[in-house]
């Protein structure tokens, strides 16, 4: 390189940076300066670095992804075999793979990342970052075995280089993959392996606290995935304590904590997003436990925090958190009898999905939206629409728990519409699928409940009691309050039907107490009707009048809310069964039928999943019904 060439390069680079940092930036002139470098036929390193810089600028400031891709491919070809050129070489590979994924060409991203991983074994930072990125790529494509194998390589690699913090991240990330695959025993084994490392081998107290949050989130999600609402309480409390430590005013900034050395520059999530995530798993726990008021309160706080973060920087993962929270709150509204708010929030969830890049969230959450619309249609006695929505959910989802949840509610639709053969078929199908795999305590209890409800409608009262006692056993063991209240009120109805007023009263009284605490207006409506009949049988006119007045009030509130929501334009969403949902909403006339005072729908809940990656990207998330794992569901990236 001659001195005159050197001066030209430096001048052009200086000018490019000047234009890039101007107010406002002049990106066109910045790009022109960088492109002018090529006219001097620069050395390979300079040429490769300039192609990388052009790719970075085009990706950051323009929509010209094809030109960005061309420059990055040139940079990778040039730098791949140059020694002592790690930052340019591996930054190019990482960015090019990211661009391929944005263009839905992960098959091109994987060989680039694999080659870069092979070349980076001497560089712990880049080797680990690329391993995380390739694992995330495979996980996004649901190639979980390959993702798990790569994370296992990361564990071995960091063990050899004594990078204990990174080893912990690889272990926890691998536990997350196992959770998605529902490998319960493997999840426990990896969490048990990670726990002593976090407790005793991480000298930096700040890094240790972040790892504890990651660990507790996974542990909480694992228990929730199994429907173990009571068992999870200790872990949830520890998680809440850890997040309070991290968001305290005297806690250092993320930049201070994660900028000390290369092996400690990996962060699962920034503390502001962890704060929202802890709210989310708390909401999930409250939903499963049957504390709807708590779930609503925490959801509102979390959504407020999300809006605050969006105003600072609207990262894609915030929309993921938002949609999961909305799925939870919609179910709360339906349980509490507030259908008018529920359909508004279903429409909002639909809009959030549609507004995501390439409708990414719609692809992941359409089954959940169909399921929510099915629950809404059931609550408005539109059984035909409910059937179609649940069927759409079952056909579209690949999540076993969500499919089971929708199938259980579809069974109740068949029960209410007296379609005995369809009901037998779906119960046999559920039974067959359940015999081959384990499910959460909540869903298994719900399955027994539906069988009990079916036996009750067939007047097989002894069989109904047998199923419902199984449900109560499972629900009481893990404090599944809504399942308990539903089972108690149905048992009360069973005893009422066989003339055992004493046992009926013993069942309906705690059912009404629980339903009031939740609150669950459907169980209250049902229970007040039973109480009215019981007091009449016992010749207690004062209590009979009181129960009748309560029943009338519950019924009138439900009917008034139904009349209100069916007039909303959003109500037309019940007619969306396939493809993209309608936008904008158009009013459509639908028959309004009286609210049935019969059985409430089966309740499900969920979790939220999280995964690794090179930089924060969009996250897939599952529905409230079954994922966080039952709902965070699949990815939250490392940064």
Automatic annotation (TrEMBL):
<comment type="similarity">
    <text>Belongs to the SCC4/mau-2 family.</text>
</comment>
<dbReference type="GO" id="GO:0051301">
    <property type="term" value="P:cell division"/>
</dbReference>
<dbReference type="GO" id="GO:0005654">
    <property type="term" value="C:nucleoplasm"/>
</dbReference>
<comment type="function">
    <text>Required for association of the cohesin complex with chromatin during interphase. Plays a role in sister chromatid cohesion and normal progression through prometaphase.</text>
</comment>
<dbReference type="GO" id="GO:0007064">
    <property type="term" value="P:mitotic sister chromatid cohesion"/>
</dbReference>
<dbReference type="GO" id="GO:0007059">
    <property type="term" value="P:chromosome segregation"/>
</dbReference>
<keyword id="KW-0677">Repeat</keyword>
<keyword id="KW-0498">Mitosis</keyword>
<dbReference type="InterPro" id="IPR011990">
    <property type="entry name" value="TPR-like_helical_dom_sf"/>
</dbReference>
<dbReference type="Pfam" id="PF10345">
    <property type="entry name" value="Cohesin_load"/>
</dbReference>
<keyword id="KW-0132">Cell division</keyword>
<keyword id="KW-0159">Chromosome partition</keyword>
<dbReference type="InterPro" id="IPR019440">
    <property type="entry name" value="MAU2"/>
</dbReference>
<keyword id="KW-0802">TPR repeat</keyword>
<keyword id="KW-0539">Nucleus</keyword>
<protein>
    <recommendedName>
        <fullName>MAU2 chromatid cohesion factor homolog</fullName>
    </recommendedName>
</protein>
<comment type="subunit">
    <text>Component of the cohesin loading complex.</text>
</comment>
<keyword id="KW-0131">Cell cycle</keyword>
């Amino acid at each position: 390189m001659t001195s005159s060439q050197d001066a030209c390069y430096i001048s052009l680079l200086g000018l490019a940076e000047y234009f890039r940092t101007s107010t406002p930036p002049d990106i066109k002139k910045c790009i022109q300066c960088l492109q002018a470098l090529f006219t001097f036929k620069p050395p390979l390193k300079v040429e490769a670095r300039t192609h990388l810089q052009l790719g970075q600028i085009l990706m950051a400031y323009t929509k010209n992804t094809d030109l960005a891709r061309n420059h990055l491919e040139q940079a990778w070809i040039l730098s791949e075999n140059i020694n002592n050129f790690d930052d340019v070489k591996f930054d190019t590979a990482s960015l090019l793979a990211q661009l391929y994924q944005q263009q839905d060409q992960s098959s091109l991203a994987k060989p680039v990342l694999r080659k870069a991983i092979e070349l980076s074994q001497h560089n712990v930072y880049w080797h680990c970052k690329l391993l995380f990125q390739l694992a995330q790529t495979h996980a996004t494509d649901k190639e979980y075995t390959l993702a798990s194998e790569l994370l296992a390589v990361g564990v071995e690699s960091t063990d050899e280089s004594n990078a204990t913090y990174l080893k912990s991240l690889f272990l926890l990330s691998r536990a997350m993959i196992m959770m998605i695959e529902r490998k319960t025993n493997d999840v426990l084994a990896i969490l048990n392996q990670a726990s002593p490392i976090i407790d005793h081998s991480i000298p930096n107290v700040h890094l240790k606290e972040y790892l504890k949050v990651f660990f507790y989130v996974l542990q909480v999600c694992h228990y929730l995935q199994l429907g173990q609402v009571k068992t999870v309480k200790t872990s949830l409390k520890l998680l809440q304590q850890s997040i309070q430590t991290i968001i305290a005013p005297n806690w250092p900034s993320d930049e201070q904590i994660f900028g000390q050395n290369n092996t400690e520059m990996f962060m699962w999530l920034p503390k502001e997003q962890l704060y929202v995530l802890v709210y989310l798993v708390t909401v999930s726990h409250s939903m499963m436990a049957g504390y709807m008021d708590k779930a609503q309160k925490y959801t509102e706080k979390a959504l407020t925090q999300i809006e605050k973060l969006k105003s600072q920087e609207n990262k894609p993962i915030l929309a993921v958190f938002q949609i999961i929270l909305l799925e939870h709150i919609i179910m709360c509204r339906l349980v509490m009898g507030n259908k008018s708010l529920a359909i508004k929030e279903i429409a909002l969830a639909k809009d959030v999905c549609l507004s995501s890049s390439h409708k990414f969230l719609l692809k992941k959450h359409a089954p959940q939206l169909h399921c929510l619309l099915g629950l809404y249609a059931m609550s408005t006695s539109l059984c035909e629409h409910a059937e179609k929505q649940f069927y759409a959910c079952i056909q579209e989802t690949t999540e076993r728990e969500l499919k089971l949840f929708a199938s259980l509610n579809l069974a109740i639709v068949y029960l209410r519409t007296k379609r005995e053969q369809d009901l037998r078929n779906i119960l046999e199908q559920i039974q067959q699928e359940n015999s081959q795999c384990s499910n959460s305590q909540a869903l298994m209890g719900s399955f027994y409940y539906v069988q009990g409800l079916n036996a009750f409608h067939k007047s097989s009262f002894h069989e109904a009691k047998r199923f419902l006692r199984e449900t109560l056993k499972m629900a009481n063991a893990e404090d599944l309050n809504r399942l308990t209240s539903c089972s108690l009120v149905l048992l009360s109805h069973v005893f009422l039907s066989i003339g055992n007023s004493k046992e009926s009263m013993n069942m309906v009284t705690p059912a009404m107490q629980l339903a009031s605490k939740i609150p669950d207006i459907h169980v209250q409506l049902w229970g007040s009707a039973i109480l009215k009949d019981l007091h009449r049988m016992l010749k207690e006119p004062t209590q009979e009048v009181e129960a009748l007045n309560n029943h009338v009030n519950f019924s009138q509130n439900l009917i008034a809310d139904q009349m209100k929501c069916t007039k909303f334009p959003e109500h037309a969403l019940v007619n969306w069964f396939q493809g993209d949902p309608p936008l904008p909403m158009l009013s459509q006339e639908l028959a309004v039928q009286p609210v049935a005072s019969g059985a409430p729908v089966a309740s499900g809940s969920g979790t939220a999943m999280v995964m690794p990656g090179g930089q924060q990207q969009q996250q897939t998330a599952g529905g409230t019904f079954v994922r966080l794992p039952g709902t965070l569901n699949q990815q939250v990236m490392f940064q």
